[in-house]
């Protein structure tokens, strides 16, 4: 790890509930580093709103933790909350359909799989908790991308050359049209975009502000996602997403299965 980054992060450990505010001298004394070095590190942290000055004069400067940490902590808290709340319903859905189930969220420019329930089938998908994927590949990531503001969508889609597994290029115009359809139907469907011969379906999970905060994604062999069985998988996945959303405080319209 970069030593300057490591030193800067170490300074955060000196703040606590008992000592929420520290002077430059106190931080330098605790760290054993020269005051000029500590000052430069704190200036970098302050620039990114991780640290904030509470008092500055010719004798000393006081600091406390910045609001950026509150923002980041809220993100972590929300992730932990949705995982904890969603897992029982994911496990119940897994018992009913015996397919692989994922909980997917957005992390900056990627989709991240934060929970997984395996099936008892021999199929093993290329996913694990903590794995990230492009937001334009797979039903879960695409559902999340479709629910972003249009400007943010464009930023993400313009950042890199878009391609599927095997480096097959993606038609951006067609993808944008697909995202619009996903947004309108509140449902996403994909075939072979991350793993060959597999199909994925996803429904949104809403929070108390009626914002899409995660995707409930079901994946398996494409042969299982056909005819009446596909209708059953869609209905049960939609119902599970509805239950999770209600537990998170969602009070909007009933989630409708795509026809």
UniProtKB/TrEMBL annotation:
Presence of the UniProt keyword Ribosomal protein in the record: no
GO MF annotations in UniProt: DNA binding; DNA-binding transcription factor activity
Domain of life: Bacteria
HTH iclR-type domain location: 2-67
Gene Ontology terms: biological process: negative regulation of DNA-templated transcription
Domain IclR-ED: 68-250
Gene3D superfamilies: 3.30.450.40, Winged helix-like DNA-binding domain superfamily/Winged helix DNA-binding domain (1.10.10.10)
The keyword Heme belongs to this UniProt entry's keyword annotation: no
Signal peptide location: none
Keywords in alphabetical order: DNA-binding, Transcription, Transcription regulation
Name of protein: IclR family transcriptional regulator
Species whose genome carries this gene: Lentibacillus cibarius
